[in-house]
Amino acid sequence: MSRFRGAVGLGLRGVGYRRERTLLAIAGVALAVLSITLLAGVGVGVLETGEESFDSADRDLWIDGGPIALSPADVGGVRPTLTDAHQTADEIAAHDDVSAAVPMGFQTVFVGTDEDDFDRLLAVGVSGGGSALSLQEGEGFSDSDTHYANGTYGGPMSHEVIVDPETAARYDLEVGDQLHVGGTTSNARANEFTVVGISSSLDEFTGGETVVLYLSELQTLTGTSGTDEATFITVTVEDDADVAAVQAELQETYPELDVRTNREQLEEILGDQLLVIAAGITLAVLAVTGGAVLLVTLLTLSIHHQRQEFAALRAIGVSRSTIATIAATQGFSYALLGGIVGVLATPVCAAALDALASELTGFDDLVRVDTTILLVGFGLATTIGVVAGLYAAWRVTRVPALHVLTR
Q1: What are the angstrom distances between the C-alpha of 374 and each of 46, 262, 339, 350, 387?
Q2: C-alpha to C-alpha distance for 11 and 17, rounded to whole angstroms
Q3: Nearest by Cα to 163 from 154, 174, 152, 153
Q4: Residue 254: burial class (beta carbons within 10 Å; 0-12, 13-18, 19+)
């Protein structure tokens, strides 16, 4: 044990003696740890934020007609694949185990308070008066969807709109103010809506500035009323009903549509981002590999520069195991210090990354780092240290003492 403690002490002195090399090794391991902890934090954050968003929506099933097609040439820029939305929703709502079925549409519209200056924002079309929206200000829509008029789209438009807080701040809007909304700029000039509420209920889904209209009025503004297009139909089942059973029955009744649970809908959304996810995983693997290679390379150089010292120790009778312990101690120390730095830097980097993600996407808490993730990152650093230390020990045992000293 005395010999082991002495070997470890010599290894630690070597770490402190070569400061530039030590700092470079620590930085390499710390970057490898950060790549894993931050990528894992993004993964956990996206999943938890998505699940919380779906849970807060208080819906059990999501029905659509397939992937949404972007169509810049069309008014609205989005071509939903679900048609006859109102009629289909009414049929689903008549199911014994369904308490509500609400069609919703997403389109882009031109919005502004100045008839000569419009911005393009996301518009959400809802039916049923938008009762599911939680309002911070205002009373919300005053009437039912009179414009739909049993499918004629001939009833009077309410010309009422609900905006999110960001849109309200952008245009300095209060309840009762007027806002131009339309599928085209000329259409927006001709349609002035009254702000009847301010709500952030849809922020967790849209992640940006949003205006909310009656679905039929949004369809009329964007030219999709002829086929009654919507993005999806949300379904709420009765409290005592089996969600899986209702899903299976609706899927059998409407084979041309996709019926998904909250979890399946979230997985479908994430599945569309497979390229981004694969790129992130690839970068993490490269960072870990790069950190390990950097550490091994530095240890190899360190052993090369200490070859005379190691040869001298061998010449005076120090055992190979003791010399290997010295080299292994150096490798493990580099990794241990790099792991500590990486773990300590993770919360700070995660907060900065989350702020950037919030600025770019509009979603908060997309990066969540817990104790398990930090332990995984530290375990990674320890593993790199063990591998590098074993490699260093193996290299030391191959130092030809007599050859080095005679040179």
Answers
A1: 18, 29, 10, 12, 20
A2: 10
A3: 174
A4: middle
The reply to whether 236 and 192 lie within a common domain is yes
Q: What is the pTM of this model?
A: 0.60
80 shares a domain with 35: no
Residue 191 dihedral angles phi and psi, to the nearest 5°: -125, 110
Specify the residue for token string 């419009």. 118
Torsion on CA atoms 142, 148, 153, 156, rounded to nearest 10: -20
Does 39 share its domain with 179?
Answer: no
Q: What is the DSSP string of 218-275?
A: HHHHHT-TTTT-BSEEEEEE-TTS-HHHHHHHHHHH-TTSEEEEHHHHHHHHHHTTHH
Token output for 18: 């070569």
Does residue 264 belong to any structural domain of this protein? no
State mean pLDDT over 63-92. Answer: 71
Residues 246 and 63: their CA atoms lie apart, in Å, by: 12
- Terminal CA-CA length for the chain: 34
368: in domain: yes
Q: Residue 255: count other Cβ atoms within 10 Å of its Cβ.
A: 8
- Confidence class of residue 68 from pLDDT cuts 50, 70 and 90? low
Q: pLDDT tens-digit profile of 173-190?
A: 999 999 999 988 999 999
DSSP run (H or E) holding 113: strand 98-114
Q: Give me the mean pLDDT over the 341-346 stretch.
A: 90
Stretch 350-361: mean pLDDT, rounded? 78
pLDDT at 73 (0 to 100): 47
The amino acid present at 249, given as its one-letter code, is: E
> For residues 262, 266, 272 and 277, what is the CA-based torsion angle, rounded to 10 degrees?
-160
